[in-house]
Amino acid sequence: MLRIGPIQIANPLVLAPMAGFTDTCARRIAKKFGAGLVYSEMVSAAGLVRKQPATFAMLAFHPEEQPVGVQLFGADPKELAEAARITQDAGAAIVDINMGCPVKRVCRTGAGAALLRRPGRVAEILSAVKKAVTCPVTVKMRLGWDTKELSVLEISRIVEEQGADALTLHPRTRAQGFRGKADWSWIARLKEERRIPVIGNGDLVRPGVCVEALQSKVCDGVMIGRAARGNPWIFAQTMAMLSGKAPSTPSRELRYKTVNLHIEWLCTQYGKEQGLRRARFLLFQYSRGLSRAARFRQELVSADSEEVLRGLLRTYFLG
Ligand SMILES: Cc1cc2nc3c(=O)[nH]c(=O)nc-3n(C[C@H](O)[C@H](O)[C@H](O)COP(=O)(O)O)c2cc1C
Question: pTM for the complete prediction?
């Protein structure tokens, strides 16, 4: 069972924070198909503190997604503490601090994976954030800056000492980006060394791999990223396998219904024009691995009205 501070998570399956994807709509979809905990895409602490409307708009939640974790990025302890308070007040159940983002634009400001090189700063951040909120605080991190600087053990010790309630490890270095394999031996190592819950992340591409990670007890929870985009069924399939049942493949009808529901939520959240624009990108994900996907995607690009788009969906998923 996964427990983060006082929050008992319904099951150990977690949706990873993914910029441009894990908005309130995607999180609700993941929840609907069995995720126990969902995280927002990373939100700029500076943007929240400076009250930037676009950043504030990212703090939109629906009751169905709770408990929801909001991930903040930043490098300044005071700013992160203030942003954490704003986030908690807005309704987040958990605040997460990003210590893994490899993107240059983020690292240049000292945030994301750059924090893995600054143990003192990590302690200041955790201490300030913990004082600012009453909700649980989690950290998501990588192994270190590069193979010469594997700071995971030191940073995770500090994170624990400063009162973090759980830790997620994506066991690649900043330099690796998404290349190579996630080294799960580090997750097992962290689970041995730390007392707080450890959530394992990286390359969990099929339900079977998630089940294996949980049953071997190398971690307390599994966080699924890329494999959940356009494929929320991975949560239900993993849950089925955990209870000894065979996982079922979603029918084309179920895919069609889910896609439509997702689009409906996007249009409600962002208005029709932006909602449909976002939907187009998502449909690439929802058709991944399906037959005739290449043709469908080509047609999507040239679909210039809602009617055409809806017609394409019907033909593709039901035709
Ligand atoms: C498009 C994309 C956006 C991401 N955005 C974030 C983010 O905002 N915060 C974060 O901590 N990780 C982010 N990640 C990393 C994922 O949370 C996760 O650690 C990584 O994808 C490895 O897990 P996976 O193999 O299950 O995808 C992102 C990954 C992708 C592919």
Answer: 0.98
